[in-house]
Amino acid sequence: xxxKQFWMLGMLLAVALVLTACPASSPAAPxxxxxxxxxAAAAPTEAPAAEEAPAAExxxxxxxxxxxxxxxxxxxxxxxxxxxxxxxxxxxxxxxLMTLIEEFNSTNPCGITVDAQNQGGYDDIRNKVNASIGAxxxxxxxxxxxxxxxxxxxxxxxxxxFDVFINDATWGLTxxxxxxxxxxxxxxxxxxxxxxxxxxxxxxxxxxVIYYNQTWLEExxxxxxxxxxxxxxxxxxxxxxxxxxxxxxxxxxxxASAVAAWTFAFGGDVLSEDGAQYLYNGPATVEAMxxxxxxxxxxxx
Length: 301
Hints:
Radius of gyration: 28 Å
Strand order of the largest sheet: 2-1-3
Shape: elongated
Largest sheet: 3 strands, parallel
Strand content: 5-15%
Structural class: mainly alpha
Distance between the termini: 40 Å
Number of strands: 5
């Protein structure tokens, strides 16, 4: 699945890269006046090379990577393109991704090269993209970012609507290929506030989970992990009290993913009902943050 996604994404981005990089075509220069007649030369023993050009050009424009002959991207050639990808992956995850990228680079018939560049964390990528935008420069062709990053970048018309490529008759995805993605993931980067432009493509998704030490929980008198916020607090407070040195308990986080997860835990959402804006001051979010602040005040976090 991941290999197929890399192939799809590589093809789409190569077309996008060429489209955005190509300047408007200039009018053809007028033909030069013919040179004065020279002394006759011996008749060539081979046909002039110019007569062979049409056949060579025809051969070059055949095959699965040849430029489309119709549609919005007719004439755009993805062959031999390099796509710079700014990402935040590290450690074993980066190693696994590099294996896939190296395989794609060495086997795709179009000669497309993905140049994966680790730029640090999400904040580092965000800062570098904003700096590029502020300087009037084009950032990398492919960026890692959350949906809120996409929306912020698009305030400056920085991103390309992926639907233009996904639905292209030549370079786009078939209905079966679209169905390979979970529908909720596939539509997650469609932004109603930007006329339903698709400003991202899902190479992967992550989720919030709880890691717990079953042995320690049993030593503290609990049989298993918490099922409610109150149970979670009781276990975290017991762990903090058992250590008695400021460790134990729960390590508080204030990033967007953590706030969203706690909002969900309290029965809310971080999007408005119409999906047009983020909502981080709803009742569930306020209740969740008050709960976590209480844990902190009691020494449990």
